[in-house]
Amino acid sequence: MIREQFLRTLQKFRMIERSETVLVAVSGGQDSVTLLHLLLELRKPWKLKLGILHINHGLRGKASDLDEAFVRALAKKTKLPIDVLQAKMKQKERSAKLSLEEGAREIRYQFFEKMAKVKRAQKIAVAHTQDDQAETVLMRVITGTGLQGLQAIRPKRKLNGAYLIRPLIEIPRSEIQKYVKINRIHFREDKSNRSPRFLRNRIRHRLIPFIARGFNPQIKKALARLPHLLDVDLTFLDETAKAFYKRLAREHPNEILFPRKTFLKLSPAIQYRLMNRALHILNEAELDFDHWNRFSESLHIKRGFQLQLPKGLLASVSSDSIRIKKGKRINVSFSYPLFLGDAIYIPEIEVSISCSALKGKPRIIHKSDKSFELLNGAKLSFPLTIRNRKAGDRFQPLGRTKPLKLKRFLINQHIPVEERDRLPLVLSDSTIAIAGQVALAEPFKVTPETKQFVRISFTSGN
Does residue 141 form part of some domain? Predict the structure, then answer.
């Protein structure tokens, strides 16, 4: 069964052509050793040139060295050339501030790309299984992802001048276990695969068995099928976005521009892909959900804004264009007087603020609308000052008896760091009465005894 599925996968995804050079990543575990055995069976009939790649991350001390010795012995037995990378994983992780898994992955793919070029190999074969696919899908659901992330492990993908292929991606680990037992294949057991330290291991040994017992015995197969179901739709979206990018994007050194009016007419799925493509072109960055969500919301309610993006990129949006460029957000600084009965426009943040006295007692005191605030006029000293925040600012939110640092308050309110300097603070004398469109200060609140009412309103644009 495993041989038949192996051949079907190779043919379905056109993973290997006859007479190609294929480098096989062998860790020494049962999956990679099985992959090597299956490819060895095809070596003569398909006229393949095979080689072995092994990485010793040195994370498990003597066990890592024994893995390397095992793979070297396997290469000698099969008469295949072998290339081994001695990776200093701990130093790499510390210097780049990467997790163990992220750091290992980066080292792995750099090594693969290098060896494919040196050996003039067309394919690099790795041993991800159907179980690995299912675990990856579930892991991305748990940690948060979009449709593209749910594609999880691709059966075949470009790796610079070569292709990374996964011939076992449709084979369950249980079938591999049967195969190694029947064929008496020796392999190395990696004890770290059972460590609860890693999220993948907790999903593999705890969560998936729990779901299989209580909800769906075929959960692995169902999860592994999802990326294939998404592939057709996502390919269509990517091709459509590519066509729009070619038509709309204006590329310049270190920046890419889109016309705002045309951009707004596109569906969010295409907008996201245009942005993501720009990020990737400028600095090989990926647009995560939080940044996309903030960008999308601001795009529909603000005429102009700036948003810091991953990997040192910046979105700078005006009334007529969307500019993605390299660089950090330009800090704004402003300070304006505001008189009673007056209205001012703040060009630095493109917000208008008005201040008016109300005649009589307003009917609505408690509200959720942040476009305006009602204040106790007797507590205010005019002219008010409208400015952005400064180091050391303190603010006393409603319900608190003492002020706290404004920075701490904004963090608690989950205000993104790139928006904090652009919040218009309303001050009476030197006391903050309103923290942007976020909150009213306790000393200026309206009470049943209030006799003078002042309304301060915030409007986007001039």
Answer: yes
**pLDDT, tens digit, 9 for 90 and up, residues 184-236:** 999 998 877 788 888 889 999 999 999 999 999 999 999 999 888 888 888 89
Phi, psi (degrees; rounded to nearest 5) at 16:
-135, 135
Q: Which structural domain range is residue 436 located in?
A: 335-460
Question: In the listed set 326, 350, 365, which residue is the last one of a domain according to the structure?
Answer: 326
**Are 311 and 428 members of one domain?**
no
Q: What are phi and psi of 373, to 5 degrees?
A: -135, 145
**Exposure letters 36-46 (e unless 16+ CB within 10 A, then b):** bebbeebeeee
Same-domain status, 264 and 402: no
DSSP-derived secondary structure for 370-381: TTEEEEEGGG--
Task: Say whether both 130 and 220 belong to one domain.
Answer: yes
For residue 366, what are the CA distances in angstroms to 20, 374, 379? 73, 9, 19
What's the full length of the chain, in residues? 462
Assign 47 to helix, strand or coil: coil
3-class state of residue 344 by DSSP? strand
408 and 273, same structural domain? no
Q: Identify the CA nearest to 23 among candidates 157, 127, 119.
A: 119
Do 7 and 125 sit in the same domain of this protein? yes
Q: Please, are residues 257 and 250 in contact by the beta-carbon 8 Å criterion?
A: yes
**Dihedral sign computed on CA atoms, order 302, 306, 309, 314:** positive
* CATH number of the structural domain spanning residue 69: 3.40.50.620
Place of tokens 């660089």: 327
Residue 316 sits in the same domain as residue 205: no
Quickly tell me which residue has 């459509």 as its tokens: 240
The number of domains in the chain is 3
Q: Measuring CA to CA, how many Å separate 371 from each of 332, 352, 354?
A: 22, 11, 11
- How far apart (Å, rounded) are the C-alpha atoms in residues 375 and 372? 10
Contact criterion met (CB below 8 Å) for 80 and 52 = yes
User: Full-prediction pTM beyond 0.70?
Assistant: no
Helix 219-248 crosses helix 130-143 at what angle (to 10 degrees)? 70
